[in-house]
Write a structure and sequence with these properties.
The chain is an alpha/beta fold. Helices cover 35% and strands 25% of the residues. The strands form four sheets. Strands 8, 11, 12, 13, 14 and 15 form a six-stranded mixed β-sheet that branches. A five-stranded mixed β-sheet has the order 5-1-6-16-7, sandwiched between helices. Strands 2-3-4 form a three-stranded antiparallel β-sheet. Strand 9 and strand 10 form a beta hairpin. The N terminus is likely disordered.
Length: 266
């Protein structure tokens, strides 16, 4: 009986490695596995029957080619990317990801490959002209003192838009009680269209994509936050990080990244 149980356990372990192909130490050395959340146009999205597309997808493909590797993309929830990279399940994460001090505790980041701006989307007939209108007033240091009653902010869970807006008003947040988290930016925008939230905070380029595909929305004047995008790798994996940084440097110098960005952002 013990031998049978032992055999069953061995088979279970083998099957576990097959189902989690990137987490059992037997990765294909010729393949780089990129974790992303393909619901963030124009950086990453699913292009019908053509598969994955977007700025991050094409830059990642160019990096893989520089390293003589095949690129494999794992489309996962944004909030699981860092954990998957941290555990070694994925080689790197690339999903319009901003470098923050909290994230740097768990993963290492490459050099910046793009800059982004957080903006606020509202309905076209909104009474608000700026996100500053969401606050009740400001102190002598011109910091917000409170949030107006009824203000609800929609965000994609675990993004910097979520982090910033969930902070206290004195830090230009709206308080976690006034923030509603959604799995994707598209879900947050849908909530705005159905009046479940007052506004959506998200990166500028995805915001423009959502505006273009949904009537009756607009972007408020002013930038909510500025940030840099980078690629995350497992903490301490200096070999891969150096390879990615070298590839990024070459792709910047030969104009490849500019061409990719120009293809998606006019």
């Amino acid at each position: 009986m013990k031998k049978i149980i032992s055999m069953i356990l061995c088979v279970a372990m083998v099957l576990g490695c097959v189902s989690a192909f990137t987490g059992c130490g037997d990765k294909d050395d010729d393949t780089l596995v990129m974790a992303t959340n393909a619901a963030f146009p124009p950086y990453e999205y699913v292009d019908g029957d053509n598969g994955f597309a977007g700025i991050d997808v094409e830059i990642a493909q160019a990096i893989a080619e520089k390293l003589g590797k095949k690129l494999e993309i794992a489309d996962v929830e944004f909030g699981s990317i860092i954990g998957g990279v941290q555990s070694g399940k994925y080689d790197f994460g690339m999903a319009g990801m901003t470098v923050t001090e909290d994230r740097k505790k768990n993963v290492d980041f490459s050099d910046t490959y793009a800059t982004a701006v957080q903006v606020v989307i509202v309905k076209a007939d909104s009474q608000y002209a700026s996100f500053e209108d969401f606050y009740t007033g400001f102190d002598e240091e011109e910091k917000p003192t409170g949030v107006k009653e009824g203000i609800k902010i929609g965000v994609q869970q675990d993004t910097t838009g979520d982090i910033y807006s969930s902070d206290e008003p004195k830090n230009w947040g709206f308080g976690s009680d006034n923030v509603i988290q959604y799995k994707t930016g598209a879900d947050a925008v849908q909530a705005l269209l159905t009046d479940k939230v007052t506004a959506v905070i998200i990166d500028n380029e995805p915001a423009k994509s959502f505006i273009a595909s949904n009537e009756g929305l607009k972007i408020l004047d002013g930038e909510y936050a500025n940030e840099d995008y980078a690629i995350c790798v497992q903490k301490g994996n200096t070999e891969l990080l150096d390879q990615i940084n070298t590839a990024l440097k070459e792709l910047k110098e030969d104009g490849t990244i500019d061409k990719i960005v120009a293809k998606y952002i006019k």
